[in-house]
Design goal:
Blueprint lengths: L1 H11 L4 H11 L4 H7 L8 H8 L7 H10 L4 H21 L1
Helix pairs in contact: 1-2, 3-4
């Protein structure tokens, strides 16, 4: 799955967590609303939150990331890639901020 995500990222020229999340959601032909509806049991997973994750304005918690992984059918390697991309973004935010 990590390779699949990397291929999506390469095709789109994107490497951020949010962009990978959006591209994977679109590959599965799911709307943000549909993803949020499947995550209704997890606080902080509304359509608005999904949009913020995809735009890099908010990072999901561990629980939210786990829910997203389930809905988007991500395996452990893909989750590790997502965490790496999130940590790189956070590191650059700290440097730039």
């Amino acid at each position: 799955m990590e390779e699949e995500l990397r291929q999506v990222a390469q095709r789109s020229g994107r490497e951020s967590f949010g962009e990978l999340l959006r591209d994977r959601r679109r590959e599965l032909e799911l709307s943000q609303v549909e993803v949020a509806e499947r995550l209704v049991h997890i606080p902080g997973c509304s359509q608005s939150h999904i949009s913020q994750y995809e735009r890099g304005r908010r990072a999901p918690s561990v629980e939210q990331l786990g829910g997203l992984a389930d809905v988007l059918d991500l395996d452990e390697e893909a989750i590790a890639t997502a965490v790496r991309l999130l940590s790189e973004t956070a590191r650059f935010d700290r440097i730039d901020g």
